[in-house]
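Hello forum,

I keep getting stuck at the same step: I have a sequence, I want structure tokens, and every attempt I make locally crashes halfway through. Rather than fight my setup again tonight, could one of you with a working pipeline run this one for me? It's a single chain of 155 residues.
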Amino acid sequence: LGGIWKKSPLMAGVFLVASLAFIGVPGLCLFPGMFLVVSGTLISQPAWAAVSIATFLILAAGILWLFQQIFTGQASSRIDQFEPYSDTAPGRILIPLTAMIIWFGFFPQYMIESMKKPLASINQQINSHRIFRNSQSDMTPLELLFRRNRPSNKR
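Reply #2:
Ran it on my machine without issues. Output:
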């Protein structure tokens, strides 16, 4: 392939923004979630955080390579047969989706606020589980679970 950018710049631009969002570029919709996951993992399991960051870097290289192969470069003979859309229907769909990708990147609190009630319900279920009932500790339920299930060095 290659050269689709010249035939359909709207599709290429939306694909570029979606690809960058999928990678987790700051200011786009997946960055806040990726940041929360990696920062939370970094606190508890630094080795796994390093693995996740390396995975994101490999993913970024793959997606940018894919974009380069499909949209840039010399147009092939198959692309010459490609006719861009003559109506505005794709733009009416793709432009609002692109705006939402950018909106939730800059204002993630709307998504985070919508998750508070389900997460509180999950926390309540975890806290009510039998192994946590008699706990008088200041530790979170997950910390207690990991502490209780950690193999001891005693022989």
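The first helix runs from residue 4 to 7. If your local run keeps crashing, start a new thread with the error log.
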